[in-house]
Every structure is written in structure tokens, then in C-alpha cells.
């Protein structure tokens, strides 16, 4: 069973529908006991970094998410990916989950923000489990980007500047785009995560 973390912010139903369409049993929960039983954890997210951190802390989820990320495959989507980092400055400076080194900052670009639309993935490295998705289109909606060392960047995209699109630290993976809204490519990325990280 795959657990989708419910902290009141995110495309929870869309993520659940995507998993169901792939044939995976899943549940939406903020209960530690249910998260403990899951094979994989997915942290979705839509909204601001600061508001999300406040909700996670209000629900007492930070300790359990930090602990489970050491043993279980853990996927952060969009804002959920940004929460994987040490800090973010959207809405004020806030501490993230610190599962991947780095910070989240506003995209530096002359282009219109938020960045909304389809962009291609530039996959890094031949041994990358996502290498089959080179140049595939995925759907982005965001104004902030991760600032992290290169060794944690699995794929990037370009929107007036280079933007990390997929990041990884062990079994912790983040996707800045919305795979659940990215058609067959997005479903393939979710399936690859579930199959390759166990």
C-alpha cells in the first residue's frame, strides 16, 4: 500500500487517481500508524512553502516523515519536492524537512512567473533510473526552484535559467513538475519510482 500524506495542501485526489490507474493500492492519510505500514510515501503539495510547513508541524508529521524517509521510498511532488530541502523563503524563511541538502528560492528569470506549462526533461547520467524519460514533456506549475548541489540533481529543465526537475538522495526523490498531470509520461515516472525504489 502506498500512502499519500494528507496535510491539507495538495493535489491529493489526482495523485490517488494516478496510482489507482496504475493498479496500486493507496490511501490518503495523516496518521502515523498508517504511514508506518506503507511501502512507499508520497508527499504532494500545492501552495506556499511556509503555509505547508506550518500545516505539517501542526499535524505533528515532521518527526514521522523524517524517520520513515530513512527506510521507505519517499516521493515529493511539486511543493512536496520543495519541502524535502532544508529551508525555503516563500512567505518568509521556514525550515523544510532537511531530507536533501539545499534551499528553495524564487526562480531568477526574465520570463513570466509562475512557470506554467510543458517542459522537457534533461536527464543526468547514464546510470539514472529515469534515463528513459530523456526529452519527455512534463507539466510544471511553480515560481520557486531548488538550489542544491549537482550530485542531487537527477534531471533538469530550462525556464530562463536551469531548474532542477528531479532530485534524489538515496530513496528520497523529488519531482518539481506534476507527474499526475503529465499524461502517460507522468504515469511512467511514478511507476518507475515505485518499481525502482524499494
The sequence of SSEs as H and E is: EHEHEHHEHEEEEEEEEEEH
* CATH fold type: Rossmann fold
What separation lies between the terminal Cα atoms?
Answer: 12 Å
Structural class, please? alpha/beta
What is the CATH superfamily? Class I glutamine amidotransferase (GATase) domain
Strand order of the largest sheet: 2-1-3-4-14-13-12-9
Strand residue content: 25-35%
Overall structural domain count: 1
Proper CATH architecture: 3-Layer(aba) Sandwich
**Low-confidence parts lasting 5 or more residues at pLDDT below 50?**
none
Account of the protein in words:
The chain is built from six helices and 14 strands. It has a single domain, classed as 3-Layer(aba) Sandwich (Rossmann fold), CATH 3.40.50.880. The chain has 198 residues and is of the alpha/beta class. It is globular, with a radius of gyration of 15 Å.
Compose a concise summary of this entry.
With 198 residues, this protein is an alpha/beta fold. It is built from 6 helices and 14 strands.
Summarize the helices and strands and which ones pair or pack.
Elements: E1 2-5, H1 12-21, E2 26-29, H2 32-37, E3 40-43, H3 49-58, H4 62-68, E4 74-77, H5 79-82, E5 85-88, E6 94-95, E7 100-106, E8 115-120, E9 122-123, E10 137-142, E11 144-147, E12 153-158, E13 162-169, E14 172-175, H6 183-196
Parallel strand pairs: 1-2, 1-3, 3-4, 4-14, 5-7
Antiparallel strand pairs: 5-6, 7-11, 8-10, 9-12, 12-13, 13-14
Pathway: Amino-acid biosynthesis; L-histidine biosynthesis; L-histidine from 5-phospho-alpha-D-ribose 1-diphosphate: step 5/9
Active site: 78 (nucleophile), 178, 180
Main location: cytoplasm
Amino acid at each position: 500500500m502506498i500512502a499519500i500524506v494528507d496535510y491539507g495542501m495538495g493535489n491529493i485526489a489526482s495523485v490517488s487517481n494516478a496510482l489507482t490507474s496504475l493498479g496500486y493500492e493507496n490511501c490518503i492519510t495523516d496518521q502515523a500508524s498508517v504511514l508506518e505500514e506503507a511501502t512507499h510515501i508520497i508527499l504532494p503539495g500545492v501552495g506556499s512553502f511556509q503555509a505547508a510547513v506550518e500545516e505539517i508541524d501542526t499535524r505533528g508529521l515532521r518527526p514521522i516523515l523524517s524517520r520513515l524517509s530513512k527506510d521507505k521510498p519517499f516521493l515529493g511532488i511539486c511543493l512536496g519536492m520543495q519541502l524535502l530541502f532544508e529551508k525555503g523563503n516563500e512567505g518568509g524563511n521556514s525550515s523544510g524537512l532537511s531530507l536533501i541538502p539545499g534551499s528553495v528560492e524564487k526562480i531568477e528569470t526574465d520570463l513570466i512567473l509562475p512557470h506554467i506549462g510543458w517542459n522537457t526533461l534533461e536527464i543526468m547520467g547514464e546510470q539514472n533510473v529515469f534515463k528513459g524519460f530523456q526529452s519527455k514533456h512534463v507539466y510544471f506549475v511553480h515560481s520557486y526552484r531548488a538550489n542544491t548541489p549537482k550530485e542531487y540533481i537527477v534531471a533538469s529543465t530550462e525556464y530562463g535559467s536551469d531548474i532542477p526537475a528531479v532530485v534524489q538522495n538515496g530513496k528520497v526523490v523529488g519531482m518539481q513538475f506534476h507527474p499526475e498531470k503529465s499524461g502517460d509520461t507522468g504515469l511512467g515516472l511514478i511507476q518507475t519510482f515505485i518499481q525502482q525504489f524499494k
